[in-house]
Every structure is written in structure tokens, then in C-alpha cells.
Amino acid sequence: MNMNFHMPTKVITGRDCVKNSAAELRALGGRALLVTGASSAKKSGALKDVTGALNAAGIAFGVFDGIAQNPTVLSCLEAGKLAAETGADFIIGIGGGSPLDAAKAVAVAAANPGITIDGLYSLDWANLPLPVVTVGTTAGTGSEVTPVSVLTTPEGIKRSIRDARIYPALALGDPSYTVSMPELFTRSTAIDAMAHCVESYFSRAANDISKAHAVRGVRILNDVFARMVKPGYSLTWDDREALYNASLYGGFAISSIGTALPHALGYFLSERHGVPHGTACAVYLPAFIRHNEQCEPALTEVFFSETGMARQDFLQTLAVITPACDVKLTVAERESLRPRWMNNGSLMKTWGDVTPDVADAILAELFS
Ligand code: NAP
Ligand code: ZN
User: Fold this and answer.
1) Exposure of 16 by Cβ count < 10 A (0-12 exposed, 13-18 middle, 19+ buried)?
2) In degrees, to the nearest 5, what angle opens at C-alpha 169 toward C-alphas 163 and 172?
3) What backbone torsions phi and psi does residue 28 show, to the nearest 5 degrees?
4) CA 158–ligand 1 middle distance (angstroms)
5) What is d(CA 306, CA 41) in angstroms, rounded to the nearest whole number?
6) What is the rounded CA–CA span in Å between residue 128 and residue 316?
7) 279 lines ligand 1 (CB under 6 A)
8) What is the percentage of the chain residues whose pLDDT exceeds 90?
9) N- to C-terminal Cα separation, the chain
10) 43 lines ligand 1 (CB under 6 A)
11) By alpha-carbon position, which residue is closest to atom 34 of ligand 1?
């Protein structure tokens, strides 16, 4: 099988890797803009470590802490303006997928003053984005190592920018920052990593290297999930490190392959029903596995053999780990979603023919 892989981000992980990053950061310039959510950068301890490293390196910095979950494109343009006005040489995103995705768009906007929303999405950028450093505080999105920024448009739709120019220059991953995450987000983000691995594995675009990353990610997650399902189990630091690594493997896998059916059907649950991203996608994993069993039985068999868990155990574990998603959809809402299931890139990468009727049947089964 072929390989096709380009992932230019320098990745450094481990305890205290941010504290020890002054030289790496100094190489990117003398002034940075830090892009964060309201509180996660502080709660996790990441902000303190980043500012410590910047001070040690003699790098001046400003902070933009206005990034919400499902970040808006407008907040990114606002932060980009601030970065340009303050002469930032590079951007540091600190947080979960939301601030990390935002940092990539901020880097584009900072280098292209006056860019419009259409200009940002058109990928027709006059200047290269500023370099981006990602400091993750969740373990799931893998955004640290992807060329993707998922932003919410003024119309309330989650829409991605995918371009090799927004690969972060540097990813600094200290799993200690994930300890402060509430339990529900720990599970929702971990299951997002599982979705990335499973979706990229069962993608028409999959290749040998993406599958190797996906299998490694699933095996790590299966191992940690087997402990997490035990009542009262508390994650150890080693578990946290394993989840963080699995998230990066999922990121490597989707960096070139993208996602499939679960992510395609998941976005509206976050947009309209406030379901956290990982849960919104993972809720479709059992249906996705069943779909692949029908379209690609041999591939599905190889998947379970390579990832080392029996089908039934895998589905049972997913059911326990995935947080509840108590959404009810009316027929009218399902009908309003139909246009989204046509010419959808992630659905087209899914095996079989995922027609709007197929997508609608999955929604009807889960949310009626
Ligand atoms: P998130 O939206 O970044 O954060 C979720 C919540 O968790 C926020 O309230 C956040 O607080 C809080 N939080 C984060 N880290 C914390 C910590 N260590 N301690 C305490 N609270 C913490 O969650 P996410 O699931 O990581 O990211 C989801 C986003 O990533 C979605 O928009 C999704 O579309 C995107 N995504 C992108 C890619 C990609 O390849 N680019 C892949 C998958 C998903 P604050 O609000 O204070 O930050
Ligand atoms: Zn995801």
C-alpha cells in the first residue's frame, strides 16, 4: 500500500517540555501573541509555564483570551488585528482544539491585515501566516499537528480551513495540563481521538502510514479505556500521557486523510444543540462500524484484528466512555439538514454510497 505523508510540525512532548522551551521559542522571534480561551490556559497551568519560558527567552508578549468553544471566525480576525498592531512575530495557541484552531486563523489574519472572512476561507492569502506554536490542554483533537482550523461562521456554521500553510511550526505537549479537565471533557475529548483514528482508518483516502498512526492510536485508547470503564477509576499521570499521545496519533492520521461520516454528521450537534465536539462525533461510531461491516467486511475484520479488541468489547467500551447525547430531532429539523449530506467531503470519503437517505436514517435511529 502507498504512503503519502507531509507533517512539518516539530513535536516535543513530555513533562516540563514547555518550561524547557525558551530556545525553541526564541528562534521564532522577539514578540508573541498568546491566544487562549477564558480560563483553561490558567487552570491548566500552561499559561504560567508559557509566560515563564517567554520571560526566560526575553520575548515580549500580549494575550488575547477571547476564544470561545467552537471559535468564531470574527474573534480570530479581531485577534489577528491585535497581533498585527502589536507587531507579533508568532502566535502561541494555548488550550483545547478551540484556541489551537483559532491560533492558526489568527496567524493568517495577522500576516494579511484587512483580510475578510471570504478571503480567509478562499485560501487566497497574499502573505504566509505567522508561525504558530500549539500548547494543548485537552487530549483529543490532535489540532496541535493538523493543517486544519475549524471556525464558526457568522451564520453559525462550523466550517474548516485546510491548508498546509497553517501546520503549526512547533507543538509542545505536556500531558500535565490535561489533569484539570472536568471528567466529562476528558471523556468527550478522548473519544474524539478515537473517532479520528477510526474514521481515518475507514476512509477511501487512507494509506499505509495513516493506518499505522490510526492503529497505534486505537490500541493506546483501548488500553486506557479498559481501565476507565471500571467504576471509580481515577486516571493516573501515565494514563493522561497515553491519552495525549493517542490524540497526537489521531492528529497525524487525519492531518493528511481528514475525517469521515461521524464528523460530517457531528458538527450540527455542536452548532445547534451545544453538544461537545468529541461526543457529537463519537455518538455515530457504532453506526459507522456497522456501516463499514456492510460495505467493507474484510477491511472491518482486519481493523479489529490489527487493533486487538473484539468487535463486541469495542462497541461496549465505546458505549460506556461516550458521554450521553440526549438530543431529540423533529422530522422538520432532519429535513432542514438534508442539503448538508450532499457533496459533503467527509461523506464522500466514507465507503459505500452515503446518500442523504442513509444519513437521515442514522439520525432518525439515534435521535427520534
Ligand atoms: P475546547 O472547545 O477547546 O474546550 C472545551 C472546554 O474545556 C472549554 O470550556 C475549555 O475552557 C475547557 N478546557 C480545555 N482544557 C482544559 C483544562 N485543561 N482544564 C479545564 N478546562 C479545560 O475543546 P476540544 O474538544 O479540545 O476542542 C474542540 C474544538 O476542536 C472544536 O471546535 C472542533 O471542531 C475542533 N477540532 C479541530 C481539529 C483539527 O484538526 N483542527 C480536530 C478535531 C476537533 P476555555 O473555554 O477556558 O478554553
Ligand atoms: Zn474531532
Assistant:
1) exposed
2) 120
3) -95, -10
4) 14
5) 37
6) 46
7) no
8) 98
9) 41
10) yes
11) 150
User: 216-232, pLDDT tens digit by residue?
Assistant: 999 999 999 999 999 99
Closest of 283, 262, 159 to residue 201, by C-alpha? 262
- Would the CB of 75 count as within 6 Å of ligand 1? no
Ligand nearest to the CA of 196: 2
How remote is the CA of residue 139 from the centroid of ligand 2, in Å? 11
Q: Determine the distance separating the centroid of ligand 1 and the alpha carbon of 98, expressed in angstroms.
A: 5
* Ligand 2 midpoint to CA 279 (Å): 9
Residue 267 vs residues 29, 49, 59, 204, 257: alpha-carbon distances, Å: 36, 33, 38, 21, 18
pLDDT tens column, 84-99: 999 999 999 999 999 9
148-152 vs 158-162, strand pairing mode = antiparallel
CB burial of residue 292 (10 Å; 0-12, 13-18, 19+): buried
Cell digits of residue 53: 519560558
Residue 152 Cβ inside 6 Å of ligand 1? The answer reads: no
State the Rg of the chain over Cα.
20
DSSP codes, 152-173: E-TTS-EEEEE-GGGS-SEEEE
